[in-house]
Design goal:
Blueprint (H helix, E strand, L loop, with lengths): L16 H5 L8 H4 L8 H10 L2 H23 L4 E3 L2 H8 L5 H15 L5 E3 L2 H30 L5 E3 L3 E6 L2 E10 L5 E15 L5 E8 L6 E2 L2 E7 L7 H6 L1 H7 L8 E11 L4 E9 L4 E2 L2 E2 L3 E4 L2 E4 L7 E2 L1 H8 L20 E7 L19 E2 L2 H12 L5 E6 L5 H6 L7 E3 L11 E2 L1 H11 L1 H6 L8 H20 L5 H15 L1 H9 L3 H28 L14 H19 L10 H11 L2 H7 L7 H14 L6 H14 L1 H7 L19
Parallel strand pairs: 4-12, 17-19
Antiparallel strand pairs: 1-2, 3-5, 4-5, 5-9, 6-7, 6-8, 6-10, 10-11, 13-16, 14-15, 17-18, 17-20, 20-21
Helix pairs in contact: 4-6, 4-7, 6-7, 11-13, 11-19, 11-21, 15-16, 15-18, 15-19, 16-17, 17-18, 18-20, 19-20, 19-23, 22-23
């Protein structure tokens, strides 16, 4: 194992330990704050000195000097003292020191220097008092010296735990991870790491206490700079049931007072051969401790010199970014055919697309090709429901612009979503489609999905779906209204009916004055869009205290609305929606709450609220079906802006070079 040398930033580590070590770090443990001493003793003071900071030791020393000098000065008022500097003071200052000042000088000289000063005793009692004060000074100075030596003999260990922990899968097994760092970057031997789960338990007799369960972790031989502590949440882990039920995630993420009472206590102890003793550090992970994604890499290499970037100690990267770095090349084709599913772990095919296909066409303009990402609302709604219900499943990305040949052969319709395996699919059969049919089977076969599918919102799922259609199609319909292209006229009529209603749309489409009718249709769509935006914002404002329409956890109405809001934000922020409006803060906060959920992270692989894939896919659809009224050039700016706003695409630009690909045979396939 190569030795890692500390970076230049390490020299400033002591001054910013609080920022590196944790987001929230207790100033003083509760046990110390509750300490009770039967009597003041030397051992009690000794441990106080060791436990407290240098400022406490300095304050203790100065306080002891002050008390000793004042006490000795009061005793000196009973003695006869002579100021040997009297003549000099009269000559220079034209004044003499008062009696109290002579006593203070007399005491300070004997206590601090353990010898006489310019104020001297003149009788037997005065001499005896001076010797007594010298003895007091000797004791005080020895004590202060002992305090300083004790502090130097017990240096700060510079062992720190990360302020948060992460939950992710390693080779299909969920793991709980946290970091421990040694800021001095020297080698510590025989480290002993221990994780303990603390949760409140009430006995049958009514007694309440914190039950302790040890969490198994691997023990390293040495620790130099950083070490990631990992606990596998396998079948025998005390966290298994908590993880599968979502209690662990909610407890570590929640800030509410009514969150489940659950803590994870981390301790490390290691031998320091420089100090010649053991060093230790501890941290407790509770509410607001869960970080999203995976820990970021801290190792840097500069001209052959390997260093540690302590600024990245608490930093994380999205799981989608990790997959890209692993080798999921942005130019890689869609997912290959998977093996047969495991029992209880089905496959779900999901419609996917790219923010850029790397073509020289108007929509991409040579922008680097991006990774294939999910966007089909039918697919993602089904995935969200199963994820909220606790089903373990695998996502198979299907590129709807160029469907994989194996998928077309295995599932004749070739669309998405479809499922293979149970719950959701049909036992003994291969791929079966229909999002509603798959959903109904999953609800019937899995208790968790059945509970997630229970309607709890005041508004029905159908009403919420109608809002979503108005928000999506109300912004897009003005771009293709009046198209005479065969496909364009059909899609335009579909969008107008979803936005304005069948009766109103049919009336406008049947009018003889087509141009005026379509102008009215565009204006009506924009007004209906703004009205729906206002109504949804009002609906969500009433659910602020609960979090979602269905309460603290989303219900089917939320699953429908979450995807719609995700789409609307992309269309509005990019400018593809042909309406002057902006995202209300109620919708922004609602989307952020969704993006922090494990189900969302599992499906999208990121907690980002903007997705350029949505914009590029809808733009491609519009200009493909209605080229007579919506040219690629007219929506190019929206696609470019979307790629600028998408953090994942911007990260791609930093790691790839432009490569122009042949344009795919894209007929504008998209889920609407």
């Amino acid at each position: 194992m190569s030795r890692v040398t500390p970076s230049d930033k390490w020299q400033r580590a002591r001054s910013k330990t609080a920022a590196i070590a944790a987001f929230k770090r207790p100033v003083r443990p509760v046990a110390k704050g509750s300490r009770v001493a039967q009597k003041l003793s030397g051992s009690y003071i000794y441990f106080l000195v060791l436990e407290r900071s240098w400022w406490y030791a300095i304050a203790l020393a100065l306080g002891l000097y002050a008390v000793s000098i004042v006490a000795c000065a009061l005793l000196a008022t009973t003695a006869r003292l002579v100021n040997t500097q009297r003549d000099l003071e009269e000559a220079i200052l034209d004044a003499v020191a008062p009696r109290w000042e002579k006593c203070l000088r007399f005491a300070a000289a004997h206590v601090l220097t353990m010898s006489g000063g310019n104020v001297v005793p003149v009788d037997t009692w005065s001499h005896a008092l001076s010797w007594l004060q010298i003895a007091v000074g000797l004791l005080v100075n020895v004590f202060v010296f002992s305090v300083v030596v004790a502090k130097f003999q017990a240096p700060h260990s510079d062992l720190v735990w990360s302020g948060g922990c992460v939950l992710l899968s390693r080779d299909g097994v969920p793991h709980l991870l946290m970091r421990v760092g040694n800021l001095r970057c020297h080698t510590l031997y025989s480290p002993r790491v221990r994780l303990t789960l603390l949760r409140r338990h009430v006995t049958n007799e009514g007694e309440s206490f914190f039950r302790r369960d040890d969490l198994v972790v691997d023990q390293p031989a040495t620790v130099s700079g950083i070490h990631t502590v990992a606990h596998a949440i396998s079948g025998g882990s005390p966290l298994r049931e908590l993880y599968e039920s979502g209690t662990l995630q909610r407890s570590l993420r929640a800030a509410a007072d009514d969150a489940p009472s659950l803590l994870i206590h981390a301790v490390i102890q290691a031998f320091d051969n420089v100090y010649g003793g053991d060093l230790s550090a501890t941290h407790t992970y509770g509410k607001e401790s869960l970080l999203e994604g995976a820990f970021a890499d801290m190792i840097r290499s500069d001209k052959g010199r390997v260093t540690i970037d302590w600024d990245a100690f608490n930093a994380t990267v999205s799981l989608g970014e990790l997959a890209r770095r692993k080798g999921s090349s942005p130019v890689r084709d869609a997912d290959p055919e998977p093996p047969a599913p495991q029992p209880g772990r089905p496959y779900i095919s999901c419609g996917s697309a790219r923010a850029s296909y790397g073509t020289a066409g108007a929509l991409d303009g040579g922008a680097p090709r991006s990774a294939l990402e999910l966007y089909c609302p039918y697919s993602t709604r089904l995935c969200l429901l199963l994820a909220e219900g606790g089903v373990e499943f695998e996502i198979v990305k299907i590129d709807l612009t160029a469907v994989q040949s194996w998928y077309s052969a295995a599932f004749k319709p070739g669309d998405a979503p479809a499922m293979w395996g149970t719950p959701g699919g049909k036992p003994g059969e291969g791929w079966v489609g229909g999002s509603k049919e798959c959903r109904d089977r999953a609800v019937a076969e899995h208790e968790g999905v059945r509970k997630a599918n229970e309607a709890r919102a005041s508004m029905s799922e159908a009403e919420v779906a109608s809002f979503g259609e108005t928000l999506i199609f109300g912004g897009l319909a003005p771009r293709i209204a009046g198209s005479s292209h065969p496909k364009g006229s059909k899609v335009s009529a579909f969008m107008l009916k979803k936005t304005l209603g069948v009766e109103k749309a049919t009336e406008l489409l049947a009018r003889e004055d087509k141009e005026n009718a379509m102008d009215e249709a565009r204006s009506a769509c924009r007004e209906r869009f703004k009205g729906a935006l206002h109504d949804v914002a009002k609906l969500l404002a009433g659910a602020v205290g609960r979090g979602f329409l269905g309460g603290k956890n989303p219900d089917p109405s939320d699953i429908n609305l979450g995807g719609a809001v995700y789409t609307v934000k992309a269309l509005l922020d990019s400018g593809l929606a042909d309406v002057e409006a902006s995202m209300p803060p109620e919708l922004e906060r609602y989307l952020e709450r969704w993006c922090r959920r494990d189900s969302w992270m599992k499906i999208y692989g990121t907690g980002q609220t903007f997705n350029a894939v949505i914009v590029r896919s809808f733009a491609n659809k519009l200009c493909t079906v209605a080229p007579d009224v919506c040219s690629p050039e007219s929506v190019r700016a929206a696609c470019d802006r979307a790629r600028v706003l998408d953090p994942r695409y911007q990260a791609l630009l930093k790691s790839t070079t432009t490569r122009v690909h042949a344009a795919p045979s894209d007929d504008g396939a998209i889920c609407i």
